[in-house]
Automatic annotation (TrEMBL):
InterPro entries: AAA+_ATPase (IPR003593), ABC_transporter-like_ATP-bd (IPR003439), BCAA_Transport_ATP-bd_LivF (IPR052156), P-loop_NTPase (IPR027417). One of its GO terms (biological process) is L-amino acid transport. Coiled coil: none annotated. Keywords: Amino-acid transport, ATP-binding, Cell membrane, Membrane, Nucleotide-binding, Transport. One of its GO terms (molecular function) is branched-chain amino acid transmembrane transporter activity. Residues 7-246 form the ABC transporter domain. It comes from Ramlibacter tataouinensis. This is Branched-chain amino acid ABC transporter ATP-binding protein. Pfam families: ABC_tran. Belongs to the ABC transporter superfamily. It comes from the Bacteria.
Amino acid sequence: EQTNIVLNVNGIEVIYNHVILVLKGVSLQVPEGRIVALLGGNGAGKTTTLRAVSNLLKGERGEVTKGSIELRGERIENLSPAELVRRGVVQVMEGRHCFAHLTIEENLLTGAYTSASRSEVAANLEKVYAYFPRLKTRRGSQAAYTSGGEQQMCAIGRALMASPSVVLLDEPSMGLAPQIVQEVFEIVKDLNAKERVTFLLAEQNTNMALKYSDYGYIMESGRVVMDGPAAELATNEDVKEFYLGVG
Ligand code: ATP
């Protein structure tokens, strides 16, 4: 069965501040309509990889110095983050990053800047509320007064407002209780199944990520050290010993 590769990261190196080599030739492929997990401990290079794809390294004084990144066969290393959003690639940053003083609904609307019309915005908002009923309940609340789980949902919801085809999701489990993590992952799975959104997600919570992903890449010190179907990684003895039960 032939699957289309949406994202093809090919041997990228990333250097911070002109000297610190952080990614040492990372390659990975994300097939259309799948959930792919980028796993590994603190500082392994997961966030850097996502930022390289969405061209968000500049603000961190980082740059891709080798390799290539393709979106459906087209090179994208030189496209601006905004252009990438227009092409359907949206990143949900680690740490949720909601605007604390805006309401949940206002936060969601900030994600709609690429929308062509008010009716598209309204339709997307209804769609987000359908997937995240909690956000609908909390639509008028200031983000600062909502729970960590609601803020994570808000961050994902805001990304959905741009009608993405690929979502780069950075550490959705961070700081959340296991039950809430599960709730968030269930919604991700749902969005993947029903809206055909492709996900590349970075996670330290290997257990949870493998449970909800199709395929996984494990990173260590800026390199991919292992990859395979999620179900195989989940039962792999080395993975169990070194990564499961961590995070
Ligand atoms: P985490 O889960 O902590 O985000 P990660 O796997 O996502 O871990 P990265 O955030 O990509 O890892 O960091 C990879 C390495 O790059 C780390 O050693 C980190 O200290 C370094 N690094 C990250 N951002 C910068 C920066 N702006 N300048 C210099 N070094 C950086």
